[in-house]
Every structure is written in C-alpha cells, then in structure tokens.
Amino acid sequence: MPTEQYRDKNAYVPEDITSPVSEPIAVWSQFCAESNIEHDGEMKSLPSMQQELFL
Fold this sequence. Notes:
By secondary structure, the chain is mainly alpha-helical. Helix content is 29%, strand content 0%. It has helices at 24-35, 48-51. It is extended.
C-alpha cells in the first residue's frame, strides 16, 4: 500500500513464498496461492543451460 513517505516505491515481500529461485514452478505456485490467483496454464522446467544462471 502506498504511503506518504515511500509513495508507490514500497514493495510487499510475501513471507509465504519459501521456494528458492532455482525452483520457479514452485515459486509461481506459492505466488498464486498467496495472491489468490488461479493459473490454468502450463509451466515447464527451464532448459538445463538456463538453470545454471540460478545456481
């Protein structure tokens, strides 16, 4: 929520998202649950070459 001190530059950091960035599908699932969003699409694992960027 914006405040006078930070205006719109204040970010909410959800504590319910505990999966590491190396597991983007789990992070997305937790984000959807936290935000009460229903995602009917399909998320696939990253190709192995891109996963090295997160290690």
